[in-house]
Design a protein that fits this description.
alpha/beta; globular
Length: 178
């Protein structure tokens, strides 16, 4: 009886915590060059998110270094960066291992990178469909979407806005209460 009650309480807590999470974040994705998958709500509950569509062979690829710096600067303030690798603009390495090497070794990325997925059009993953509907769809690689911890506020920053641009960092400051 006690075991059933404990299992029911655990299930209720898990259902309750997910009910506060917006559907577009209650999604599971595979990590880059890994068999491990994560649910965005479970992994990043209560955090403000900077979601970025990335590619390993783009003129904006050096933004990985600045994205990592922003992540390091704000990670202790309920903030994280999530990179969605994508070949929608034909600039992602065909080999996921090579894309991972570019991110993790060449640019020192420690924030969460997800395996290639579509980020635009009818094939876009559910997270990017919602981001595009709330703001605008990515027109190229390295679009940035700043999402409040409750998922209700989404701000869009295009590819040309560098991660350390004051327009973006001041918005992160306001969101994190820095």
């Amino acid at each position: 009886m006690y075991t059933k009650l404990l299992a029911s309480a655990t299930l209720l807590v898990s259902v309750t915590s997910h009910s506060a999470c917006p559907e577009f974040l209650d999604q599971e994705y595979r990590k880059l060059h890994s068999t491990e998958s994560i649910n965005l709500c479970e992994a990043f509950e209560g955090k403000n998110l900077l979601i970025v569509n990335t590619a390993s062979h783009c003129g904006f690829t050096p933004q990985f270094k600045a994205l990592e710096a922003v992540y390091q600067q704000y990670k202790e303030q309920n903030f994280t960066v999530i990179g969605f690798a994508s070949d929608d603009f034909k600039q992602e390495d065909a080999k996921e291992a090579k894309a991972a090497e570019i991110c993790y070794i060449n640019y020192g990325v420690t924030f969460t990178m997800l395996a290639p997925t579509s980020v635009r059009g009818d094939d876009a993953n559910p997270t990017f469909k919602a981001l595009a509907a709330a703001t605008e769809a990515p027109g190229w690689n390295f679009n940035k979407y700043l999402v409040s911890a409750d998922g209700k506020s989404i701000r869009y920053f295009g590819s040309r806005v560098k991660p350390n641009d004051p327009k973006l960092t001041q918005t992160i400051d306001a969101l994190t209460g820095k």
